[in-house]
Please model this.
Amino acid sequence: MSPNYSVAEENYIKSIYHLQQLSESVSTNALADHLKSRPASITDMLKKLHAKGLLNYNPYKGFRLSREGNKVALLIIRRHRLWEFFLVDQLQFNWEEVHEVAEELEHIRSKKLVDKLDAFLGFPKFDPHGDPIPDNNGKISAQQQLPLSNLPLNQQAVITSVQNQASELLSFLSSQNIIIGTRLEVKRRLSFDNSIEIKFKNKQSLTLSEQVANAIQVNPL
Amino acid sequence: MSPNYSVAEENYIKSIYHLQQLSESVSTNALADHLKSRPASITDMLKKLHAKGLLNYNPYKGFRLSREGNKVALLIIRRHRLWEFFLVDQLQFNWEEVHEVAEELEHIRSKKLVDKLDAFLGFPKFDPHGDPIPDNNGKISAQQQLPLSNLPLNQQAVITSVQNQASELLSFLSSQNIIIGTRLEVKRRLSFDNSIEIKFKNKQSLTLSEQVANAIQVNPL
DNA sequence: ACTTATTTTTAGGCTTGTCTAAAAATAAAT
DNA sequence: ATTTATTTTTAGACAAGCCTAAAAATAAGT
Model:
């Protein structure tokens, strides 16, 4: 049984995970910045996480998560992203608003809760920001996501997210039934302004500007 | 703006609320028992809650929540019961399992989250245990709930909960479509065994034993 | 009423997670 | 290569929330 970690520990683990995506090794100062705390506090916690085997840590030389640390991080991220999906998809939150609340919900560790939530939501693969949701083993699906503007012609795809958070765009898109889960394909690409013509499963079609097509992330089927 | 309280403070407030339903004034020992902690710890926290105006407290004489303390308690209980409803109604948890998880979810204070959850669930008035859910002002609806066994003949009512948690009973009931929200009325009461004959809106009818009718809580319409 | 038992509070200590200030290690600069 | 600047760690302190042990207040028993 993997032990339970405190909320503070989980936040450190998650931050380290994100920072180590950007560089080989994470520094004390970078983590202090990210967590809005002081370097001395970071060192304290690093020692604890290292003692618990979650961290590869050489004093003064930087650190990364161990294999176990990574596993823990991915389960936290799984919870975070599933809750974000829930908030947007079921509770009608806007994309900008969900992060803060998901930061709290992610610390509820009940595996049963998370797996049932996952099933309830239909096993979503991407959160509303388009970031992939790890499965219950912490694996991230290899499946790629790309902007609608790059989708090959006549390739069926499903909308996984919209990057741009401007509520004007959001309400426009939802008025056209362009929401997470919508299936469509690109029928034409107009070279003079890079606008695209899309077609829904129900045969309806619509033209979108390059900017809008860039903001919409899709998942080829 | 009412301040935010720590998880520990919220748990104290909630426990005091429940204990003061049972007796005029709450004692240090009773609360220590309820929270599975020691009397000395209780006294410490009582001083804090009293300083924050949440408690009417006379040292050595017992305590109760102040008006403000009561308001806070009811909002915590609202969150707890809404999440319980969500877990059972949406995520298919069994009634026995939900309490523990709801104990964690109840501490997420976002008002927006709670009110949206409430709307999403259809503004339920009772949680799966049959306890009333306070509204967003902390008011508990006066509406009465009673066991199906006591429902007057030909009185329309809606099922709000099932008290008995035996899973055999639960699966029997759900196989007969007797779930939270089901509408029915009692057509006949058989005096020799106190069994009752119920009728659904769709005219189907069914006979239930006294024990089963006792376990089903309903809300007259 | 006065002793005994119970309850509650105080006193002091421990852990977690934070902080500031100072010391030590590493990196940069002349 | 040696001084200077930066980064990281150590040392010591503090708040929240818990604990045990002892003291004080209240309640019960004769």
Notes: The interface with chain A takes residues 87, 90-93, 97, 100-101, 104-105, 108, 110, 112-113, 116-117, 120 of chain B (CB under 8 Å). The longest helix of chain B spans residues 67-89. Residues 27-29, 39-40, 42-44, 59-60 of chain B lie near DNA strand C (CB under 10 Å from a C1').
